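Quick one, tokens below. Sequence please?
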């Protein structure tokens, strides 16, 4: 059962439940939750209670904006080359036996990893508190930035590296998937409906991360995303004209999020020439009986 089908089933069931039955369900969930998930459960209850971003401590928007300004200043230091990544030639490197990625040793003595990690955290926080203008500025800066590589690599290549390459080359570590999901969610809620498909596709191409998906983006917030059914129709139409491998994966996922097998079959029939995997997906998910 996909997420949209699941939400529909839940909505239909809840409509026919009494207050007492709903309380019994909440108590049942509370009794069976493992300890690590209990704090998150309480926060969800508080959120539903007053539709506010509940936390254990009172928050201050001004302080959050100040933290966002601070992290933008740190990112500016990376942009201007004030801080970057150090490198030196690996004297033990053998170009006959070793992988080319081992030719240089990289050291993050300036704390670039800490800055990126903090930027990811602040992006998440800004979205949580509806500071969307600030979140967009931060997200755009993170995607555009390239860090200078000092030392032997600079003399060899001279090319800076963006945050994605720093991560994939193992030079720094941070929550790449979380950053990607936050960026997708942010673009979804801030872009006009007509621009959503193209904007989200650009994000998927930029991150090129198999852990990113529309379903995981939908689960990013406690709130159910508005216009999701309309978006899925537009998203599938947009992906149907794309030839890249990533479009194959995304259109299969989007088709799987539709509410019924007949709609999925219609999509497969329309786009099978460029996306033959759609029929395979229907059969694999057990929706092939719609052909009868």
């Amino acid at each position: 059962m996909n997420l949209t089908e699941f939400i529909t089933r839940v909505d239909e069931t809840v409509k026919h439940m009494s207050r007492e039955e709903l309380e019994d369900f909440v108590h049942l969930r509370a009794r069976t939750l493992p300890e690590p998930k209990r704090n998150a459960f309480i926060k969800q209850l508080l959120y539903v209670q007053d539709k506010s971003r509940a936390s254990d401590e009172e928050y201050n928007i001004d302080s959050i904006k100040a933290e966002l300004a601070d992290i933008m200043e740190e990112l500016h230091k990376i942009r201007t080359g004030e801080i970057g990544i150090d490198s030196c030639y690996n004297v033990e490197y053998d170009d006959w036996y070793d992988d080319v990625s081992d030719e240089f040793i990289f050291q993050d003595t300036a704390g670039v990893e800490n800055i990126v990690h903090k930027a990811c955290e602040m992006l998440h926080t800004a979205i949580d508190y509806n500071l969307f203008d600030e979140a967009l500025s931060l997200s755009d800066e993170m995607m555009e930035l390239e860090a200078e590589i000092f030392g032997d690599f600079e003399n060899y290549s001279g090319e800076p590296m963006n945050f994605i390459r720093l991560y994939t080359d193992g030079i720094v570590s941070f929550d790449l998937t979380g950053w990607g999901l936050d960026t997708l969610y942010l673009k979804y809620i801030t872009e006009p409906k007509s621009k959503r498909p193209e904007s989200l596709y650009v994000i998927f191409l930029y991150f090129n991360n198999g852990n990113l998906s529309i379903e995981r983006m939908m689960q990013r917030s406690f709130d159910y995303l508005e216009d999701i059914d309309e978006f899925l129709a537009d998203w599938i139409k947009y992906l149907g004209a794309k030839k890249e491998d990533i479009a194959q994966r995304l259109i299969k996922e989007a088709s799987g999020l539709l509410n019924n097998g007949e709609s999925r079959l219609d999509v497969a029939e329309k786009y099978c020439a460029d996306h033959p995997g759609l029929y395979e997906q229907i059969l694999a998910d057990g929706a092939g009986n719609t052909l009868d």
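The two ends are 21 Å apart (CA to CA). Strands lie at 85-89, 104-107, 146-147, 149-151, 161-162.
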